[in-house]
């Protein structure tokens, strides 16, 4: 396989290995940096160039870069590109992180159960409807011109209808804009706002990929949270954007009360800033009615959403969207026509079909039932430890286990890895300058019932090894 441009390092990706391509690429680039094959201040190729030369999707290259950015091996320079970091990856800004116990590798050749993220379930996937949608889409001859910059009108109408049915959201002063990816939607939205290098307050803790994506567009500051979600009264001064997850704070699972949503809307009205929330957090629990979105309680010019169908259908579907104030829609369309890619015509038609036929809504209902059964098992198993606190196990397909101070999360994470279970430390979800909570985060939606039971048994064995007492049965 050829070497990427401006990257004189051999890269060999094997598609027959169980290890994902992005993990292979990340490991080889990390190894090249540690060995000095890629020296400090070496300019990395763009993700587009890397994907073309290696014959992989741009999403694979982007995922590898995001991991290396989070680990500190590379750094982005606005308007200049991405470079190998000139400092050690551990020299992150802010207070020194607590010492972590070295994680010993699992048994050689053993399969690792990866619980590090909320991976969607492949169970009961609507394959027949999926095939039918793509078949019908392929029956239409592709147009001679590119689709409209903001997306096909029928797809935008279908997304609008889906938000109305699933969230009760009526988009009077907003427009839906279709993009090729979540990061593209964020970039187009924030650039259209007209504030270069905005200051963004992101609730803390938050998903690392969201912090990384926003960090490429401006300066990210932590916004403290409590049991009710983000604290609007603690929004840092001079912020241009506040990014929150009001329906299901990830990873702590808090649902923001309506009073705080109104307080966020009031902040935007008084400061002229923008409140940004994801469109699909908080689904997958039929017993919980969505609370009014910040879009519903705020001014139309000061609120926006960004969403995708990764959690409902598949992460490989390169189609996302932004719900933007109407006055920004024209500027965003200009930005898209200036170089941002768009989903293919056939992809947009297929997703329109899946939405209009009710397939997506039925998929949400099916996942809600599947996840609830798994959440009940997680609560039953890990709720037996009175010294711990289980959070986020009421919505979504992931949870966080807070540990007592005498049990270090790093030690538990390392112990699980020895037993071939890979989870994420809660510290990974915190801003580098924050004092992290002591716990670990795990996703379980992608596991079948048998694997989930075995995995939970392994977790309890590891907690027992750390001398955590179990609650005895009555």
From TrEMBL:
UniProt cross-references to CDD domains, sorted A to Z: WHTH_GntR
Keywords: DNA-binding, Pyridoxal phosphate, Transcription, Transcription regulation
UniProt-listed SMART domains: HTH_GNTR
PROSITE patterns: HTH_GNTR
Domain HTH gntR-type: 19-87
Transcription is among the record's keywords: yes
Pfam families: Aminotran_1_2 (PF00155), GntR (PF00392)
InterPro entries: Aminotransferase_I/II_large, HTH_trans_reg/aminotransferase, PyrdxlP-dep_Trfase, PyrdxlP-dep_Trfase_major, Tscrpt_reg_HTH_GntR, WH-like_DNA-bd_sf, WH_DNA-bd_sf
Family designation: In the C-terminal section; belongs to the class-I pyridoxal-phosphate-dependent aminotransferase family.
Protein name as it appears in the record: Pyridoxine biosynthesis transcriptional regulator PdxR
Organism: Nonomuraea rosea
Gene name for this UniProt entry: pdxR
